[in-house]
Amino acid sequence: MLEKQAKKIYLGVGSNLGNKKKNIEFAKFLLQQNNKFKIVKISSFYKTKSYPNYKDPFFLNIVIEGKTTLKPFDLFLFVKQIELKLGRKKSFKNAPRECDIDILDYDQKVFKIKNKNDFISIPHPRLHQRNFVLLPLFEISKTWIYPKKNKKISDLLNSLGSNHLRTIKLT
Hints:
Elements lengths: L6 E9 L4 H13 L4 E6 L3 E3 L10 E10 L3 H14 L14 E7 L4 E4 L4 E4 L8 H10 L4 E2 L4 E2 H8 L6 E3 L2
Antiparallel strand pairs: 1-4, 1-5, 2-4, 3-4, 3-10, 6-7, 8-9
């Protein structure tokens, strides 16, 4: 069971290789296998063109609200293990992948963590520019505040403008 000091977190989960929906469902299953992590809410699936190379396969994306007693870096290691189990390999930036899990928010705090091989920034550094993250996040948390700029999610979405809207909700 999660302890009382569990932190609220948000994860962005995406896939653009293989059976995308199955990959995301398996990632959700693996997240639940850790007794220090609990899924609270899950957004709908969103279909997004690959970026920056629109010729790559499209992405399916969701956002998960969770509770965890894992510390930020331990959560990072945990989600990277899930990506590897789903077949993700180290490749070039923005390469197609079976699974991508980003820590969007950890307890409304800002973290920059560096160890030997990894540098992580929470919230995700480009979160505020990505409607494929903001739309599903808004779906499950309409009052969420972006901790880096203390901005409401509705303001972030409005600042993108319609020319950045590349996402469609799956039915």
